[in-house]
Amino acid sequence: MAKKFYAVRVGRDGPGIYDAWDQCRTQVHGVAGAVYKSFPTREEAESFLSGGEAEADTAQPDPEGAIAYVDGSYDSATGDFSCGAVLFLNGGEITFSERFHDPELSSMHNVAGEIMGALTVIRYCLEQGVPALTIYHDYEGVGRWADGGWKANKPGTQSYAAECRAARRSMKLRFVKVKGHSGDKYNDTADALARKALGL
């Protein structure tokens, strides 16, 4: 089989050249707006990264279902929290921005918003009959509680973990942690939507 070089112009860790598809896929899979292309020589791949005119491939949402970016925020003045989310489904983009007032959950501050963001997109996708959902989040607990990696000690996290387990009976559910405030376009968008819901 002829060797290929995979040039990633826009990906999870920025521009780069990879000599295996699995390495390239890690950089582009589930990354909205990712731009990449394979080449037979390293020179062509380098030319593409430096602005060459070769037509790029654009990463699309998981063909099996949807991808979403979620985030949360908290207003210490009111005790309210909020969630923001960007959902990519069937070639479209749907945004969510919602404020909550729940004294019990608000003790978790912005983490309450993070898990409500995940639940908001999970519930929406279940209603739409979506078979698979990948959720990108910047707070580790969003995925850890859902996957059982962290013990859910508070009523809010216990309820969240239980709802995720129930959702998995109807859909494939995957969680991917991203670094917060690192220039990830859609993570930043989810953060802005959460803050907007609180008027921050």
TrEMBL record:
Highest taxon listed in the record's lineage: Bacteria
Alphabetized Pfam families for the sequence: Cauli_VI (PF01693), RNase_H (PF00075)
Span of domain RNase H type-1: 62-199
InterPro entries linked: Ribosomal_bL9/RNase_H1_N, RNase_H, RNase_H1_N, RNase_H1_N_sf, RNaseH-like_sf, RNaseH_domain, RNaseH_sf
UniProt keyword annotation of Repeat present: no
The protein's Enzyme Commission number: 3.1.26.4
Record key words, sorted: Endonuclease, Hydrolase, Magnesium, Metal-binding, Nuclease
Gene Ontology BP terms: DNA replication, removal of RNA primer
Family note: Belongs to the RNase H family.
Name of protein: ribonuclease H
